[in-house]
Amino acid sequence: MDKEEQDKLKKQAAIKAAELVKPGMKLGVGTGSTVAFLIAELGRRKKEEGLNLAAVVTTSSRSKKQMESYGFHVDELKAVDQLDLTIDGADRLAANFDGIKGGGGALTMEKNVAVNSRKIIWIVDESKVVDRLSGFALPVEVLPISCEQNFKLFQAEGLQPQWRLAGNERFVTHYGNYIIDLNIDPIPVPSGLADYLDHTVGVVEHGLFLGMCDEAIIAHSNGEIEDRKK
Ligand SMILES: O=C(CO)[C@H](O)[C@H](O)COP(=O)(O)O
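Above: inputs. Below: predicted complex with ribulose-5-phosphate.
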């Protein structure tokens, strides 16, 4: 699928998901190019229908800036008790609704917003839908103080680590950390890997989002916009 076609599908999924945003909701807004279409649609609804939200929390400064450009006030997560709904993109969606996120490097905030949401909807084009998690390197955010040790450990474990780069430099996250992408394809036992990473000192967060997504809006190239519920 070329980029133009993929962007068309991303936009369709985003516009469909925007219909599920109701006035007065406390809304979590994810990060990425698919979410950018969602935000544009929410902006249109604000302008044309006066859409008002009780609270908005975003998972990156990019999304925050875009929401604010449409006149939405954006709160910090810690100031909001619980979000009614979070809509986010994803890099992979498996048949059991597990996913990989973090392609845009915002995984830590995305997971924190996700666990504080009553409901999570992902918006994806069909190219991201897989049977089991595969086809996308797993992002792991690590603290700079022990990042070299983490990298060597992952190498020794056969996890095929690779530094995430921005140009010639290491990519730096919102929190000043680095990302190591693990090239495991497919991920044989996602829960085992998540458990290992959750217990590795120096790992801030990883992109395995297991059992979190409740519903996925999937845009297909045959024109179907599927609303898949767990
Ligand atoms: O997890 C993410 C950012 O950290 C994004 O949701 C994911 O990478 C999808 O991005 P896009 O919509 O641009 O394909």
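Helices lie at 3-18, 33-49, 61-69, 107-115, 147-156, 190-198.
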